[in-house]
Amino acid sequence: MTSTSESTQRSRPVKTAAVVTHGPKDVGQAVDRVRAVAERAGVKLVGDHRSAGIVVAVGGDGTILHTLAELLGSDVPVIGVNFGRVGFLASIKPDGLERDLQRVFAGEYDVVELPTLQVEFDGGKRVAVNDVVATSSTLGRMVELSWAVGGEDLGIVPCDGMICATPSGSTAYNLSNGGPVLVRGLDAMAVTFIAPHSLHARPLVVPQGLTLTAGNRTADVTVAVLVDGHRVGEMAPGNEISIYLCHQRSLLATLPETTFFGRYRETFSS
Predict the structure, then answer these.
(1) Are the C-beta atoms of 212 and 244 separated by less than 8 Å?
(2) Residue pair 256/109 in contact by the 8 Å Cβ criterion
(3) How far apart are CA 155 and CA 119, in angstroms?
(4) Which residues in the chain land under pLDDT 50?
(5) Catalytic residues
(6) Using the 8-state DSSP alphabet, how is residue 47 labeled?
């Protein structure tokens, strides 16, 4: 049974923090502003992200997701300052940086536990914060992917690939391919095919406790496997991967008034 109650942790005043940027956009001035707020608040900035009380991710959703993945297994939450195009996971806007970050450093924030995915592939395991993607390794070549959920065969789909997304990752590549947005608090993953060559391939929401198995049934094309956008290997014809919701949680810090539906309305209904 899926859970619809968002899991949160109690926040506390911040004594140490780290600042993270990622990607091509120049956010040097924003980082200087973060440092100035930290100095006024008496918060020490540290270089070791995993030893910080909180990490401030300055950028877009990609920066936040990259940082959440880096901090998996730690107790360090990530607060996002949006300098990207969407910033769905960010709580702080550029024009409110000083005011809102001061509040965060004073302990006025919530920590939301977000589900992750585990993929078993080629004898190993990897954890994804955002999504696991299986796609044709040859540009312009279609692949045939078999899929099964909970051990029940669901057939073979000719397509360009398949996306398995967490709720936090459902607003990224999954959404751009017509997949559903999963409300934060659901322990579920969205399964969406990329450019399916079939009128019967529909997105599916799979709950906690069920494993999705995907296999490469293409005779002469390998399938690339990507975890959070990073290529981790290939499925040769006949090989399979297994994907399921993981026990690990990524920790996203939010302002108390920042809700999923409020961000949804601002991002997708304007």
Answers:
(1) yes
(2) yes
(3) 20
(4) 1-5
(5) 61
(6) S
